[in-house]
User: Fold this.
Amino acid sequence: MLLDSIRTQLESFSKSERKVALAVLDNPQLTVNENISALARAAQVSEPTVVRFCRSLGYDGWQEFKLKLAQSLALALPGASEQPAQDDLAGDLINKICSRSINTLLDMRNNIQPEAVQSALDILARANKIEFYGQGTSGIIATDAQHKFFRSGVPTVAYSDPTIHAIAAALLREGDALVAISQRGNNTALVRSAQLAKKGGAAVIVLAPSGTPLAETATVLLPVDLVFNTDPYTPISARLAYLMVIDILAVGLALQRGPEFRRKMQNAQKALQEFDLQFDSFIG
Assistant:
């Protein structure tokens, strides 16, 4: 939700903007129902400070922020904020896990910036090669991304070992692209590799929370702002958000490369299907 994005960026706001953030978090429904003056009074700041807060989140101003917050609250499904409990029945688990995942994807849809996605696609479309870096769970996402992107016809590779991606990053040059993926954005090794890539002239696309050290290295930032808490199941829905962004970029790149390239992809897919049929016949 948009509220999650605000929570993750609390430390990056100025002192006065943080007051606005806390007022919104304290009573989001009241924020939607009232005007900018009411929020400014509740936060004990000026109206221009409220506008600066909205712009810090990437919105043009108060009205756009208020609309996005209203959409986020309206779309939230019941059970999405509840943690799975020891005595939950199967029906409870279905409701909680599915609602949380759906809310995460809806929130990403409403808050991802088309301009940032287009900038990332422009970089990927002209890249000589594309490398994906991530560690832990993010390493799995990087591998999934490489699997999707290698069909683009551009040389692609995924690294999850910090030593290996540091060496690889140091070899990147202008015209190359790095996609750095992190669910927390504070992995020291990943930040260092992104800095090395940028120093060599490569473009760095970052999928990570806003206001994090990794986000600061980005040529283009695609923020994924989700709150991590003590619930061990949070990363399940978080991973879906990252995979969705990867899918958007993969499909966007395929479309941007034109109809001739799409025909080649379809021919490759057809050849694979024919091979599968032959293999199935052989083992049957």
Q: What stands out?
A: The beta strands are 130-133, 156-159, 177-181, 203-208, 220-223. The mean pLDDT is 86. The chain has two domains: 2-75, 114-258. The longest strand covers residues 203-208.
